[in-house]
Design goal:
Layout lengths: L1 E2 L4 E2 L1 H10 L16 H21 L5 H6 L6 E3 L6 H6 L3 E3 L9 H4 L7 H22 L1 H22 L10 H18 L4 H16 L6 H20 L5 H27 L1
Antiparallel strand pairs: 1-2, 3-4
Helix pairs in contact: 2-6, 6-7, 6-8, 7-8, 7-10, 7-11, 8-10, 10-11
């Protein structure tokens, strides 16, 4: 028996009462986080951890960065060898890619930064937008938005970036957050000027820095963020969770299928 305000309650009665008590939910069906900053701070900590590891390993030219950066296909640096074994036999440095088995790069690249400024800009965006979106979506849905946006960015990099070019950074996931914020603002008829100004500035930076900024990652993350957000925000209230997770799952499978198709072309 459990102590109660008056007398005692049986454990089974308490458990049944908890089942029947409606849990606090966000506007779009997620379980309300007690502290919506925790997830964003955790993501920031992971990104900082990757940056610190890359810095200690020697920066952009280190073997660690070359292993974690997103590269559509592997290649031998400075030597015309078409496999890792052949590259090593002639004394070359093999740079792994997704097509030759480095599938982890699809996500590890989204947490990897070499430049402090690049890291700072992306993490400020996560810190500002993340808690707001988690308050609206819930922790699980926010994480799905972040990770699927990052994966969508990687998929477009696979198809539209040069075959042996390395791409890194959380910008794809951040553009997914921008897109989701825009979708929510349109849904609730909130002022659009702030998010449009931010998007305009980032678009200008992407265009001006096209030589060293991955427009493929930015565009892929933005498109992925829009589609995931549309599913999460506009799913019908009846059995909303099923619609939401089914929609996010279908898009994730389509993204992975696009990656698989690109790998098949490169092999």
């Amino acid at each position: 028996m459990h102590d109660a305000a008056v007398g005692f309650q049986c454990p089974s009665c308490v458990a049944e009462g908890r089942k029947q008590t409606r849990q606090a939910r966000t506007p779009y069906g997620g379980q309300r986080s007690s502290n919506p900053q925790v997830t964003s701070l955790t993501l920031i900590a992971v990104n900082v951890g990757f940056w610190l590891a890359a810095t200690l390993a020697g920066g952009g030219s280190s073997g660690l960065v070359q292993a974690l950066v997103l590269r559509p296909d592997g290649g031998c640096l400075g030597v015309g060898a078409d496999s890792a074994d052949a590259c090593r036999q002639v004394g070359g440095l093999w740079l792994p890619g997704v097509a030759d088995g480095a599938l982890w790069q699809l996500l590890t690249s989204a947490f990897l930064h070499v430049s402090v400024l690049h890291l700072l800009l992306n993490m400020v965006a996560v810190y500002v937008l993340g808690p707001q979106l988690e308050s609206l979506l819930g922790r699980a849905r926010f994480l799905a938005l972040y990770l699927v946006s990052a994966l969508s960015a990687s998929a477009l990099v696979m198809w539209a970036a040069p075959q042996f070019q390395g791409t890194l950074g959380a910008s794809g996931a951040v553009f997914g957050l921008f897109a989701a914020y825009l979708v929510v603002a349109l849904k609730v008829k909130a002022p659009l000027q702030p998010i449009l100004v931010i998007l305009g500035v980032n678009l200008l930076i992407t265009v001006v820095g096209a030589g060293y900024i991955s427009w493929q990652g930015h565009l892929g993350g933005f498109v992925g963020g829009i589609l995931v957000a549309l599913v999460l925000v506009y799913s019908p209230k009846r059995q909303r969770a099923r619609w939401q997770w089914a929609g996010v799952g279908v898009w994730a499978l389509l993204v992975l299928s696009a990656v698989a198709a690109r790998v098949a072309v490169l092999l």
